[in-house]
Amino acid sequence: MENRGYFDNSATTKPCREAAEAVMNAVENGWGNPSSLHFTGSEAESILEDARANVAAALSCKKEEIYFTSGGTESNNLAVFGAAYKMRRLGRRIVSTAIEHPSVDSALDALAAEGFEIVKIKPDRYGRIDEKYIYDAVDSDTILVTMMLVNNELGSILPVRSIKKAVSRAKAPALIHCDAVQAFGKMPVKPSALGADMVTVSSHKIHGPKGAGALYIRSGVKIQPRAFGGEQEMKIRPGTQAMPAIAGFGAAAKAIPDLKQSLERAESLKAYMLAKFEENGGIIINSAPDALPYVTNISVTGIKSEPMLNFLSSKGICVSSGSACSKGKKSRVLAEAGLENAAVESALRISFSRFTTESEIDYLAGMIKLGQSEIRKIR
Hints:
With 379 residues, this protein is α/β, with parallel strands linked by helices. The protein is built from 13 helices and twelve strands. It has helices at residues 17-29, 39-59, 72-87, 102-113, 131-137, 163-170, 191-194, 243-254, 259-280, 305-314, 332-336, 341-345, 358-378; strands spanning 5-6, 66-69, 93-97, 117-121, 142-148, 175-179, 198-202, 213-217, 283-285, 295-300, 317-318, 347-351.
């Protein structure tokens, strides 16, 4: 089917030309094992280190602080479990939020079963976290604080920068981890400015291929590996690197355009879209006015998510009903934010990329309006 409007960029993005070319170059010319000492291995290693340098440059950090993984989920698991097990002699308390990605939330549940004390801060109606509750939650027994920078369903921006002050005030030994998967490539993500010891980013959310991600670990910070058996990635993530995916990731990171200009354009597109929705009527905006403009959560009054999503898909439009990792289940994030059940059941997530156009938005608004009429007729 012809794609007439792709609005599921928070789930995955279309690979950019630079990334696709880098993948093919790695397949055809960089197919050696980067750990091998001969010239074919050296050629692959050069591609690997170029990619590492590109991701590091996009994060304004040293390339030695970048560890490649298979994606955001593995990076989050590595950060959460790795920090918890390394730091457990210093305390048992871990502070997070109730709206984290499943790769963090489920990891915390597993640690709770092992006897760690897990505190999940509740959000407000829009998925925002009041920094006051961070100060209340962090105590001298806290060994890890993990918080996303941008929520993947509501687009709310979380106060990650407040964590370091809370940790210092409590005189806690805590490491700070930030899941920046939804923020990277859309807004400035600089670990030193965030006060983060670890930061998770992913390739396929910035127009790179799937199968590659990275975990930034600040120089001097030690965590416990989750896998063993090789020297790759400084023993933090052993195993032969997935060179084509990593090469594409590096190229996508290098191709990230000026963030200020891109953000201004996204804000303009969001305002344009909201005006169209207001003309339609019957649409509730669940995201906060100050949410990252790339992600907007809406509820179409009186129509459940699945029939509207399927109707739009039949018209060549891609949206989602929540996190792709939840496979269409009722949104935990929206429920934690306190939305009424009717709003949760009719929620749709619309997520832009830097390639989204006004004409796509025109078509989306028109098809939602048509869907409002057609679906109600069927019922």
